[in-house]
């Protein structure tokens, strides 16, 4: 398949090139990030989004804090550390961002060469994170595809495809690999309120890849399950706690509850960088609360009174008890999830 590249180096290698996902599906616009301010804004405003992709963007972006012309390596390391802290604060829920930034900061602190050598080494380190994610996506796809029978009708939520990663995606990777292997797969994509990542992004990339896709109003998922029209659900994740609880886009938990009631398998797919052994349970996950205006006047149209109170959590937590299996790049993990692959931060 022709894999989308939502995050890459600019042609001159000194900046970060992103596909601005805010413009999809109407326009395919690429932006160049040349400063830490640019990187923070792109992550916070969802110009680049998806847990693995923002981890990659953060790792690549933090290298913009050093040019190699700093007075000392110590000055360069201080600049990297400060930039990493700013970028990490852009979105708190996805563990991949902190994981990738920690890798770059740890590499900087142990570097013994000149500032120029450090700048070169950090760019190489960020490229390795991108390459590793691409390989992890392929492995997730190959494992996840074993869960999809020929003719599978798959329901997914938000966007866990190529747009959200460095490769072919996580949840959608299973679909892409199954299609490569000649199996027929049909996808139902929840629209994913309030920012419509399912209808704007998942439907766009699946349609582009020639995968049959139907967009659903979020509230219609349970009705399709009741009618026997869904064989399985598969979603991505932004953080997976030590006990197997999963943080993902808001309404994922409701989807898992509906799936359990209707006897539909509910799968989660994520790379090693999404597993957070330092977080004991989902109750310990910080949930990002986004702007009220995303609800009151989403996409520039008033959809609620201008001064009405709003709750706009970007994510929810699905208890491990509702999850049939978690597909990582290492294995298919089944309850009670005692073998989850927790990544090192060094």
CATH architecture of the largest domain: 3-Layer(aba) Sandwich
What is the residue-averaged pLDDT?
A: 95
Radius of gyration: 20 Å
Regions with little confidence, pLDDT below 50 for 5+ residues: none
Elements, N to C (H/E): EEEHHHHHEHEHEHEEEHEHEEE
Topology:
Layout: E1 7-9, E2 16-19, E3 30-33, H1 36-44, H2 51-62, H3 73-88, H4 95-109, H5 115-145, E4 152-156, H6 171-180, E5 185-190, H7 197-208, E6 213-216, H8 221-226, E7 232-235, E8 239-240, E9 246-249, H9 252-262, E10 266-269, H10 293-296, E11 315-318, E12 325-327, E13 332-333
Helix pairs in contact: 1-2, 1-3, 2-3, 2-4, 2-5, 3-4, 3-5, 4-5, 5-6
Can you offer a commentary on this structure?
It is a single chain. With 346 residues, the protein is an alpha/beta fold. The chain folds into two domains: 7-138, translation initiation factor eif-2b, domain 1 (Four Helix Bundle (Hemerythrin (Met), subunit A), Up-down Bundle), CATH 1.20.120; 142-333, 3-Layer(aba) Sandwich (Rossmann fold). Helix content is 36%, strand content 14%. The protein is built from ten helices and 13 strands. It has helices at residues 36-44, 51-62, 73-88, 95-109, 115-145, 171-180, 197-208, 221-226, 252-262, 293-296; strands at residues 7-9, 16-19, 30-33, 152-156, 185-190, 213-216, 232-235, 239-240, 246-249, 266-269, 315-318, 325-327, 332-333. The strands form three sheets. A seven-stranded mixed beta sheet has the order 6-5-4-7-10-12-13, sandwiched between helices. Strand 12 and strand 13 (332-333) form a beta hairpin. The longest helix has 31 residues, at 115-145. It starts with 6 loop residues before the first strand and ends in a 13-residue tail after the last strand. The model has no long low-confidence stretch (mean pLDDT 95).
